[in-house]
């Protein structure tokens, strides 16, 4: 199959590289000439484990290429995927679809004959219909069909998620277009039993938002249970284990923490709420989730202050982990930002270490001293705070840390350290939802 991928952001680049690895012939198109130039040199615009290797091997095999020329890129394509950004529109939280519509218009003008335009970007319900209207205006006679194929990959585990998905969702109103998608995903159904679910286009669009909102609710639920655990003397990790063993609930996404962040949950929950409002069908549970999660991030800063005795003026706090989650350099809506600002507002001095996030973090945070490693961050600090659970924080030399810190206090906002290990190393430990 011949595929064009418009947009080389997270979703576009990972999907393009993985499709080419399936054996398809893929051209990735982006307007950003600098990005394309870097990709020609095998420099990835994002940090994602395994991506550079995957791109380079498929480029070498002649199945993957990059261009800024959309007309050239879509030539002869069986399917053209739109994977451009859908950021929150300033002011009202609606998804900004201007990039999607502009891409649709350009593609419709450029393709020469029948093709399938597939929206992979996260787009609100009804966007496929709007894309169809654009095509009817620009190229009514080319036989272009519009399909929705939302993406469920996670940053940091993107390749694995793409190649071994729980499911693939395709929303299509046309049998011939469905067949094209069947062909594209055939390698998945051949190698394993990843179900490809065919449904209506609007339903597929909603599945994407409903999935992200449900996961955001699940995380927020366990975060509030964690607070209750602290109040009543229970242990949230045990509660998660106890409820997660019920298959109807499931074990995943029950890790209590400082609140969810990233480029998806915050943006998609807002966009879903807007859609719900527009249709006078409010989603109160999602509204509550968004509010609870927003206030939680600063509350985590206050939790650190409380653990340090209530007054942090002139005290130093060492933050380990800045990105919204491990294995990414993404700082969007990262809880670390609110935690650090709350500490700074209260007069604390902040030192921080992150394996990949410092470049982005330094653009978003001021007056933070970025350290070269966890030990340099801890030197002279009055508390060590784990905000993001990078693997390299799981095996810190606690004896060495103790010698470097002013006060051996560990605030573990991800519960990665067992309390007996930390306490026997001579630390005071404050975790999340650890009422006992
Ligand atoms: C999320 C979804 O998991 C993907 O399925 C989806 O494709 C993607 O959004 C998207 O819409 O593009 P992502 O934002 O990369 O993926 O990251 P997640 O692993 O879902 O984590 C999101 C946030 O939830 C992080 O801040 C993480 O720390 C937090 N989280 C996650 C918890 O606090 N506890 C958990 O148990 C799990």
TrEMBL record:
<feature type="binding site">
    <location>
        <begin position="253"/>
        <end position="257"/>
    </location>
    <ligand>
        <name>substrate</name>
    </ligand>
</feature>
<feature type="domain" description="UDP-glucose/GDP-mannose dehydrogenase C-terminal">
    <location>
        <begin position="318"/>
        <end position="419"/>
    </location>
</feature>
<dbReference type="InterPro" id="IPR014026">
    <property type="entry name" value="UDP-Glc/GDP-Man_DH_dimer"/>
</dbReference>
<dbReference type="InterPro" id="IPR036220">
    <property type="entry name" value="UDP-Glc/GDP-Man_DH_C_sf"/>
</dbReference>
<dbReference type="InterPro" id="IPR036291">
    <property type="entry name" value="NAD(P)-bd_dom_sf"/>
</dbReference>
<dbReference type="Pfam" id="PF03721">
    <property type="entry name" value="UDPG_MGDP_dh_N"/>
</dbReference>
<dbReference type="Pfam" id="PF03720">
    <property type="entry name" value="UDPG_MGDP_dh_C"/>
</dbReference>
<dbReference type="InterPro" id="IPR008927">
    <property type="entry name" value="6-PGluconate_DH-like_C_sf"/>
</dbReference>
<feature type="binding site">
    <location>
        <position position="208"/>
    </location>
    <ligand>
        <name>substrate</name>
    </ligand>
</feature>
<feature type="binding site">
    <location>
        <position position="35"/>
    </location>
    <ligand>
        <name>NAD(+)</name>
    </ligand>
</feature>
<dbReference type="InterPro" id="IPR017476">
    <property type="entry name" value="UDP-Glc/GDP-Man"/>
</dbReference>
<dbReference type="Pfam" id="PF00984">
    <property type="entry name" value="UDPG_MGDP_dh"/>
</dbReference>
<comment type="similarity">
    <text>Belongs to the UDP-glucose/GDP-mannose dehydrogenase family.</text>
</comment>
<keyword id="KW-0520">NAD</keyword>
<feature type="binding site">
    <location>
        <position position="122"/>
    </location>
    <ligand>
        <name>NAD(+)</name>
    </ligand>
</feature>
<keyword id="KW-0560">Oxidoreductase</keyword>
<dbReference type="InterPro" id="IPR014027">
    <property type="entry name" value="UDP-Glc/GDP-Man_DH_C"/>
</dbReference>
<protein>
    <recommendedName>
        <fullName>UDP-glucose 6-dehydrogenase</fullName>
        <ecNumber>1.1.1.22</ecNumber>
    </recommendedName>
</protein>
<feature type="active site" description="Nucleophile">
    <location>
        <position position="264"/>
    </location>
</feature>
<feature type="binding site">
    <location>
        <position position="325"/>
    </location>
    <ligand>
        <name>substrate</name>
    </ligand>
</feature>
<dbReference type="GO" id="GO:0051287">
    <property type="term" value="F:NAD binding"/>
</dbReference>
<feature type="binding site">
    <location>
        <position position="267"/>
    </location>
    <ligand>
        <name>NAD(+)</name>
    </ligand>
</feature>
<feature type="binding site">
    <location>
        <position position="261"/>
    </location>
    <ligand>
        <name>substrate</name>
    </ligand>
</feature>
<feature type="binding site">
    <location>
        <position position="86"/>
    </location>
    <ligand>
        <name>NAD(+)</name>
    </ligand>
</feature>
<dbReference type="InterPro" id="IPR001732">
    <property type="entry name" value="UDP-Glc/GDP-Man_DH_N"/>
</dbReference>
<feature type="binding site">
    <location>
        <position position="30"/>
    </location>
    <ligand>
        <name>NAD(+)</name>
    </ligand>
</feature>
<dbReference type="GO" id="GO:0006065">
    <property type="term" value="P:UDP-glucuronate biosynthetic process"/>
</dbReference>
<feature type="binding site">
    <location>
        <begin position="152"/>
        <end position="155"/>
    </location>
    <ligand>
        <name>substrate</name>
    </ligand>
</feature>
<comment type="pathway">
    <text>Nucleotide-sugar biosynthesis; UDP-alpha-D-glucuronate biosynthesis; UDP-alpha-D-glucuronate from UDP-alpha-D-glucose: step 1/1.</text>
</comment>
<dbReference type="InterPro" id="IPR028357">
    <property type="entry name" value="UDPglc_DH_bac"/>
</dbReference>
<feature type="binding site">
    <location>
        <position position="332"/>
    </location>
    <ligand>
        <name>NAD(+)</name>
    </ligand>
</feature>
<feature type="binding site">
    <location>
        <position position="155"/>
    </location>
    <ligand>
        <name>NAD(+)</name>
    </ligand>
</feature>
<dbReference type="GO" id="GO:0003979">
    <property type="term" value="F:UDP-glucose 6-dehydrogenase activity"/>
</dbReference>
<dbReference type="GO" id="GO:0000271">
    <property type="term" value="P:polysaccharide biosynthetic process"/>
</dbReference>
